[in-house]
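I'd like us to work through together how a protein chain folds, taking it slowly. To get us started, please write out a protein record for me. Go ahead whenever you are ready, and we will take it from there:
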Amino acid sequence: MIVTITIVRYKPLLIPFAVLAMALHRIPLQFYKKCTFWKLMGCGRNGTFDLNPDWQQWALLAVWNSKEDFENCTFIQKWWDTFTYEKWTVFAEPIVSHGKWDNKEPFGRPTTNKPVNGPVGVLTRATIRLSKLKGFWSNVKPVGDLMGSSSGYITSVGIGEAPFFRQATFSIWEDMESMKAFAYGSKEHAEVIKKTRQEDWYSEELFARFRIISSTGTLNGVNPLINQPLTTTN
């Protein structure tokens, strides 16, 4: 199993093609049997859950049988080559996954005791109860600011299927230790996690960790993983 997260960027004049892609790309993904799970999503502006969408930046998260299956999804690849001016793809292997996404377990139930050397990715996604939106959004910014300034943080993207209530963040860390230091050692983060349980913010949620295998392309002009100890190409 290979998981890809691709972030693409369109020029302002081509934003209508970005919106159109959210409908058209469903067709090849639906019928391409070697893609076992996919989500077409918009992006926030600040690298985490965000109320302000970036209409130029869009995302595809997908699960494939192999890296070659991703590369052979030619309609989408050609669309990106034609209409976008920047593309960044992360290839990853799930190592831990809990919860569901649209009542599915897209990454199975992997568990590994093997040490992970080098960068790790973390995906957190949730469907927020409409009655809990105010409480959720009032707690997002402090945690996002803290994550961005944490030791070992590399980059993150805020992605979502629908504004306000179907949200996800994918973050990348230099190693497992730095990721755990933020997740479990931060008082602010711990308080928010506690609130999610006490106030029952989510109707569905998923948390997954990944071993980063490789990355291609650029995000905001650079490959965030170019200096990390893994195989990267531009």
Summary: The chain has a mean pLDDT of 87. The CA atoms of residues 155 and 172 lie 5 Å apart. The chain is about 30% helix and 40% strand.
